[in-house]
Amino acid sequence: MTASDARPLSRRDWLLSDRPASRMQARLGRAYVAWRRFSANRLAFLGLLIIIALLVVAAFADVLAPYSPTIGDLKNARLLAPSAAHWFGTDDLGRDIYSRILFGSRWTLYVVILVAVIAAPIGLLVGTVAGYAGGWTDAILMRITDIFLAFPKLILALAFVAALGPGIENAVLAIAITSWPPYARIARAETMTVRNSDYIKAVQLMGASPFRIVLRHIMPLCISSLIIRVTLDMAGIILTAAGLGFLGLGAQPPLPEWGTMIASGRRFVLDQWWVAGAPGFAILIVSLGFNLLGDGLRDALDPRSGDQ
Amino acid sequence: MTPAISIDGLEVAFDRFRALKGVSLEVKSGESFGLVGESGSGKSTLLKAIAGLVPAKSGSITVNGKTLGARRDKAFYREVQMVFQDPYGSLHPRQTVDRLLQEPLAIHGFADGEQRIQRALDEVGLGNGFRFRYAHQLSGGQRQRVAIARALILEPSILLLDEPTSALDASVQAEVLNLLEEVRRRRKLTFLMVSHDLAIITHMCERLMVMQNGEAVENLTASQLIGHRVEKDYTRNLLRASEGFVRTA
Amino acid sequence: MSGTLLDVDDLRVDFPTRTGLIQAVRGVSFSLGRERLGIVGESGSGKSQTGRAIMGLTPPQARVSAKKLALDGIDLLAMPARQRRALRGKRIAMILQDPKYSLDPVMSIGRQIVETLRTHEKVSKAEARERALAMLEAVQIRDPARVFDLHPHEVSGGMGQRAMIAMMLIAGPELMIADEPTSALDVTVQLDVLGILDRLVSERGMGLIFISHDLRLVASFCDRVIVMYAGKVVEQLKASELRDAQHPYTRGLLNCMPRIGYERHPLPVLDRKPEWAA
Ligand SMILES: Nc1ncnc2c1ncn2[C@@H]1O[C@H](COP(=O)(O)OP(=O)(O)O)[C@@H](O)[C@H]1O
Ligand SMILES: Nc1ncnc2c1ncn2[C@@H]1O[C@H](COP(=O)(O)OP(=O)(O)O)[C@@H](O)[C@H]1O
Ligand SMILES: [Mg+2]
Ligand SMILES: [Mg+2]
């Protein structure tokens, strides 16, 4: 948003108007109210800043990184402690850890976005269909969900990666396959609460098909709780990806993936703590960012927190 | 002339609970028919069974000469629409009035949506200023007007009204009742209207049926009720209660 | 009036919100003897907030102020919170519209009544039970011993409301505030409950504030009526003189309801004037 336009005060009134004059204004007004609720929360705002910083870093890693992430100076720069030249020190192959972390943010984002894009829609679809259809459809879909939920996520992901072969794409796939069941549960619970409401009955009375009702009337109601949950899960996803990387089943060296970096740094963790410590700290910060953001979104989007 | 709604021996059960125990009813075309009775007597269930929202266990429902099966087709919903009791629960919380009114038009493939929405809003006395509001930006009476506009936009011939004003203030109730009477006159609609308030039923309806425990107690005309010419004690009690509190001492 | 039980002068309730100050009650004054006083008005006119302010149940974010708010000469606003709490239930009681929300769902009805009594009076368990049963009988519950052990979800709306009244009356309050106590009930049940309330009030010499949106009902039940609009009292009159009400708002409210045997098409509607709220 460009902040410094001609009439900042009247624009606020325009957004908060009780009688919007167009579809666009109504939608923007709604978004603005949610934004005000969100930005009133300092910690959530901090979370948002962290995530924005992550995006910026990922986008401009080439420009920001002082050294190459994969080619190191084996002769002169092995395992140097943090200094002005190498902010986070260097690793056993003489690579600048700061640069590797900057580039590693791309892989973190890659994992996070792919998992969200795959897992959330699957969960949403399974949950809303099960919740709306009820009966056998519900029973079958929920038993499948339960089977997935019964295993710890990392173990299940390990099994999938073992079957599919190591590599970051397969790690993403494995995490996505293992993370949709909780989303399906949430979407189903939400669907069950709105399924019998009069406004859904009214749409049924328009002659809408079940498909249309689920897609256009029920899913939009589930989406905000799903967004909140996915955001809160991001930290877990990053950690699972890092865990797989650490176990050698995720990203393969020399990819600068944070989990893999910790794994390769663990041999020096007592003497050269920065090799494993710096990527660990990066994971911590980003996870925290997503968590704070998720909490803030919960306050801003939660329909139960009042629609006034 | 074929009756608008004709119901014969309708049974509805929820699990083992019999909500309707063989109710029969005939509503003439263009008539306004009332259903009264205490809460839990099955009034809403009767309307929902007609609308296809709850399954009938036995008995038949005929609308405009067509006997209905278990499923309702799209054509049915262009004949019959419903307005619900609770104006706070019958509008989707995430949709603007515009979107609410567009939905039926999209489902039935109307091309002139823009004008129809415009006209529907004018007809229920809401100007364009309300078109892009969300439900939470409307008062109870305005919400009920939107619900009426939504029910009318497909131009049905029959309107099922489930206590459409019981959640509203008396002053707003009067406005909504006037609106309903006006659209009925203008569009020659058939009403089947539920209320627990005898005064509203005698105001709005020509004939009525009194219900208790899922059964019809008696059928009356409004003038019979007004003249206290009723047969059953149950109806007489209702009539007495509607006259307000009487101190006995 | 010497028998004044409650004295309210210039009562105000304000809700500070992000978009500005909401004045829910704007200078309400009245006094109450041992009588039935009705408060009527449309929803949002401040009836409930008036009742809650007297009861001391205003939400914490709201500000309550008054020139005078006194029960039997005791200043309620100057009183420490503890003392105010002790007064609730003991000397002032309140019945709400839906017993489902005011009764504890996991405790039997009898236990709730007994607990209420024992927080206000030192009585033995056996005696408390005796009195609870007697109270259930007084609100015309036919089989008090059975209802005593039932949980709130196991009884009908009318029965729940009677149980609620029994609970509120057990400690023998002098002032009862009933906020739409019968609006959720069927007309016939409504009259039964009103009958019970009426008898208890006159037998025990309580003061009753009866809040309702139904002007006709209030007129047939109460001695005196206060009509509220937008947080203010627009008219105060005897119930028997309601037909001669002066204020156009009161007259509008009376007229706009359909009545059996009076054909009026269309119904007269209220033509709101901005000066009513001024
Ligand atoms: N979906 C349902 N499941 C089980 N019981 C129901 C359901 N809907 C209604 N009932 C029961 O059917 C009876 C009639 O209800 P209803 O038709 O809503 O009554 P009314 O509208 O006359 O107050 C009530 O006892 C109610 O509890
Ligand atoms: N918690 C609250 N926050 C803000 N405003 C409130 C709150 N509770 C009540 N109000 C306002 O107080 C006014 C009066 O409410 P109330 O006393 O409940 O009305 P009534 O009982 O007459 O329907 C309403 O306009 C409402 O907007
Ligand atoms: Mg009903
Ligand atoms: Mg109230």
The number of helical segments of chain B is: 9
Strand content of chain B: 15-25%
Helix content of chain A: over 70%
Protein structure class of chain A: mainly alpha
Number of strands of chain A: 0
Q: Can you tell me the CATH superfamily of chain B?
A: P-loop containing nucleotide triphosphate hydrolases
Assign the CATH superfamily of chain A.
MetI-like
Gap from first CA to last CA of chain B? 54 Å
CATH domain class of chain A: Mainly Alpha
Helix-strand makeup class of chain B: alpha/beta
Strand content of chain A: under 5%
Order of helices and strands of chain B: EEEHEEHEHHHEHEHEEHH
Largest sheet of chain B: 6 strands, mixed
CATH topology (level 3) name of chain B: Rossmann fold
Quick summary of this structure?
The complex is a heterotrimer of chains A (308), B (249) and C (278). Chain A has 308 residues and is mostly helical.
Plain-language structure description:
The complex is a heterotrimer of chains A (308), B (249) and C (278). Chain A is mainly alpha-helical and 308 residues long. With 249 residues, chain B is an alpha/beta fold. In chain B, strand 9 and strand 10 form a beta hairpin. The mean pLDDT of chain B is 93. Chain C has 278 residues and is an alpha/beta fold. Chain C folds into 2 domains: 189 residues, Rossmann fold (3-Layer(aba) Sandwich), CATH 3.40.50; 72 residues, no CATH class. A 6-stranded mixed β-sheet of chain C has the order 7-8-9-3-10-11, sandwiched between helices. In chain C, strands 1, 2, 4, 5 and 6 form a 5-stranded antiparallel β-sheet that branches. In chain C, helix 8 links the parallel strand 8 and strand 9. The chains are: A mainly alpha (308), B alpha/beta (249), C alpha/beta (278). Chains B and C meet through helix 6, helix 7 and helix 9 of B and helix 8 and helix 9 of C. One adenosine-5'-diphosphate binds next to strand 1, strand 2 and helix 1 of chain C. Chain C: InterPro entries: AAA+_ATPase, ABC_Ni/Peptide_Import, ABC_transporter-like_ATP-bd, P-loop_NTPase. Chain C: One of its GO terms (biological process) is transmembrane transport.
